[in-house]
User: What shape does this take?
Amino acid sequence: MPAILICAVGAAETVSGLLAAMGRGPDTLTKGPALVDPDDTATVTHRMCMDCSMPDAVVAALVAYAADGTLPEIAGTWGEDNLPGGDDLAAAHSGLAAYPQDDRTRAEWLAAALNDAGLELAPASDI
Assistant: This one.
């Protein structure tokens, strides 16, 4: 099931480490699209990713982590071998929101996630 992840900038590195440990790739939220508060479009406050290839179990694990900090099962051990651990993961979960696609079109889904978060895509930089 596809999911949109929206993460506060301060938690993005830790949550990206969590995602990498789950096999979702490095830097997922540190280099994702920038999001801003509509009243302050000059300051990036969040990062986003839209992953349309997430298995349902991964989405469920991320929803649980975002809700209450429940750590997903991984092949390694949290806090070892360059994986984020303890205090960092405990603090980062409150900066993450996970939005499964459910039965919405991609446009409806993206609009609903951004509306729920009270954010919008950052204006494009001048080239």
Observations:
- The beta strands are 3-8, 34-37, 40-51, 96-100, 120-121.
- The first strand starts at residue 3 and ends at 8.
- The CA atoms of residues 14 and 89 lie 7 Å apart.
- The radius of gyration is 14 Å.
